[in-house]
From TrEMBL:
Keyword Transferase: yes
Name of the protein described by the UniProt record: Adenosylmethionine-8-amino-7-oxononanoate aminotransferase
Sequence similarity: Belongs to the class-III pyridoxal-phosphate-dependent aminotransferase family.
The organism of origin for this protein: Tritonibacter scottomollicae (Epibacterium scottomollicae)
PROSITE patterns with a match to the protein in the record: AA_TRANSFER_CLASS_3
UniProt keyword terms in alphabetical order: Aminotransferase, Pyridoxal phosphate, Transferase
Keyword Transferase: yes
Length: 442
C-alpha cells in the first residue's frame, strides 16, 4: 500500500521509471509519448545530456546556499541570460521554485511597489475569468476558474475578474477580430473606473491561456490596448507566462508575439524543463529601483529561492534552447503540428476549435459544431479522454470546465520541442484513437 498522498485518491497510476527523449517508460516497460510535456514542462524531453551533466556538476560543487547570506554563480548567470533576452525594461529576476510562487511574488511586489511610492490606497488586483495563476491562496484568488476557487473562496482575497479574450465563443457574428479584441480589452478600463483608478494596483493575464481554456491566444491588438489602459491609469501589467513562456509558443517570451512588454513577468515550467523545480518573477528597473531607493527590502521570500542546483538546471536549459535554436524549431514544428491536427480533426463532428501558438495547441470538444454546444459535464469527457490516451500510450492534458469552470472540455497539447515530424503523426494517431474510444463510451 502506498503512503504517497495522490492527486486523486481513487487513481491507480502507472509508475514512471525512465525517460527517453519524448517518451516516459513505466515499470512494465510500456512507452508513453509525452504529448503535453507533463503540464507544458518537459520542453527538452526527458534525457537531455547537457542539462543532466549541469545538474550533476552543480550538486558536486555546491548544493545549497541560503540567499539571506549568499548569492551563487548559477543564479547570477541565469539572471543575466534571462534579462539579456527579456522584453521591454525588465531588469531584475527573483527566483522561486514554481509557477504559483512566481505569481504570488508578483502580487506582493505590485502592492509593495505602490506602498514605496506613497500610494497605499492602490490595493485592487484585476484578472480575467477562466484564467489560472496557481494554487497558493493569492494565486488562486487571482485565477478566474470558478471550480478551482469554489471550496476555498472564504479564504481568498477579493479580486475583480473581467472577460477573457476568447474569440471562439465570445466574438459576435459580424464583429471583426480587431473590434472584438478592443471591446473585451476595454472591460479593463471600465473595471478600473468602477473600482476607482487610484485604488487599482495591477492587472494580471496569461498571453496564451493554458490549463483552463486550452491554448487560447489573444486576437491582434488586444494586449496593446491593455498596455495603453494600464499606462493611462498607473496600473502595473503582470503577465503570467508560467505555462506559455520559455519558448513554448515559438518566442522565448510569449508576450513578444503581441508586441507588448509587462512591468512584471512570471515564468516557470519550461525554465527548468522538469530537471529541477524552478520559476522566476522578472520586474522592470523602475519597480526594482522603487524598492531599492525606498525600504531596500522586498518583504517576501522562501527557503529555496535562488537554489544553486535549480538555477544551474535553468541556465543549462535556456542555453540549450539558444545554442540549438530550439525556440525557432518550436515555432516551425508548431506549424507542422497545427497542420496535422487540422488535417485529422478539422472536420471532426466533435472538435469545434483547434488553436494555439508554437507547440502549445488546444482542441475544444463540442457536442454540436454548428452551435458550439459543449458536452454535458456529467459525461466526464475530459477524464475519459485522458484515460483512453494513457491506454493508447499517449500523455495529453484534457480538462473540463472550459467555458465557465463547469461546462466545456478541451485537450491541451505541449510536446517537447525536440519532437520529429514522424512523432507528430504518432501523436495525432494516438489522440484520434483515444478520442474515438472516449466518445463511444456512453
Amino acid at each position: 500500500m502506498s503512503h504517497v498522498f495522490p492527486r486523486h485518491s481513487t487513481s491507480d497510476l502507472p509508475t514512471a521509471v525512465a525517460g527517453e527523449g519524448c517518451y516516459l517508460i513505466d515499470a512494465n516497460g510500456k512507452r508513453y509519448f509525452d504529448g503535453s510535456g507533463g503540464a507544458a514542462v518537459s520542453c527538452l524531453g526527458h534525457s537531455d545530456a547537457a542539462v543532466i551533466e549541469a545538474v550533476k556538476a552543480q550538486v558536486e560543487t555546491l548544493a545549497f546556499a541560503h540567499t539571506g547570506f549568499m548569492t551563487s554563480q548559477p543564479a547570477e548567470a541565469l539572471a543575466d541570460l534571462l534579462i539579456s533576452n527579456a522584453p521591454g525594461t525588465l531588469d531584475r529576476v527573483y527566483f522561486v521554485s514554481g509557477g504559483s510562487e512566481a505569481t504570488e511574488a508578483a502580487i506582493k511586489l505590485a502592492r509593495q511597489y505602490h506602498l514605496e511610492r506613497g500610494e497605499p490606497q492602490r490595493r485592487h488586483l484585476i484578472a480575467r475569468r477562466q484564467s489560472y495563476h496557481g494554487n497558493t491562496l493569492g494565486a488562486l484568488a487571482a485565477g478566474g476558474n470558478a471550480w478551482r476557487r469554489q471550496q476555498f473562496d472564504p479564504l481568498l482575497i477579493g479580486v475583480s475578474h473581467i472577460a477573457p479574450c476568447y474569440e471562439y465563443v465570445d466574438r459576435t457574428e459580424g464583429e471583426s477580430r480587431f473590434d472584438y479584441g478592443q471591446r473585451v480589452a476595454n472591460e479593463l478600463e471600465a473595471e478600473i473606473l468602477r473600482l476607482g483608478p487610484e485604488t487599482v494596483m495591477a492587472f494580471m493575464a496569461e498571453p496564451v491561456v493554458g490549463a483552463t481554456l486550452g491554448a487560447v491566444p489573444a486576437v491582434d491588438g488586444y494586449f496593446k490596448r491593455i498596455r495603453e489602459i494600464c499606462d493611462q491609469y498607473g496600473v502595473l501589467l503582470i503577465l503570467d507566462e508560467v505555462m506559455c513562456g520559455m519558448g513554448r509558443t515559438g518566442h522565448l517570451f510569449a508576450c513578444e508575439a503581441d508586441g507588448v512588454a509587462p512591468d512584471i513577468l512570471c515564468i516557470a515550467k519550461g525554465l527548468g524543463a522538469g530537471y529541477q523545480p524552478i520559476g522566476a518573477m522578472l520586474c522592470s528597473a523602475e519597480i526594482y529601483d522603487a524598492i531599492a531607493s525606498g525600504s531596500g527590502f522586498f518583504q517576501h521570500g522562501h527557503t529555496y529561492i535562488g537554489h544553486p542546483v535549480a538555477t544551474a538546471a535553468g541556465l543549462a536549459v535556456v542555453t540549450q534552447m539558444q545554442e540549438r535554436d530550439l525556440v525557432a524549431r518550436c515555432a516551425r514544428m508548431g506549424e507542422v503540428l497545427q497542420a496535422a491536427l487540422v488535417d485529422r480533426f478539422g472536420q471532426h463532428p466533435h472538435v469545434g476549435d483547434i488553436r494555439g501558438r508554437g507547440l502549445f495547441r488546444g482542441l475544444e470538444l463540442v457536442a454540436d459544431r454548428d452551435d458550439k454546444t459543449p458536452f454535458d459535464p456529467a459525461r466526464g469527457l475530459a477524464a475519459r479522454v485522458k484515460n483512453a490516451a494513457l491506454e493508447a500510450g499517449l500523455i495529453c492534458y484534457p480538462m473540463a470546465g472550459t467555458r465557465d469552470g463547469r461546462n466545456g472540455d478541451h485537450i491541451l497539447l505541449a510536446p517537447p520541442f525536440i519532437l520529429s515530424e514522424a512523432q507528430v503523426g504518432e501523436l495525432t494517431d494516438k489522440l484520434s484513437d483515444a478520442l474515438g474510444r472516449a466518445l463511444s463510451a456512453g
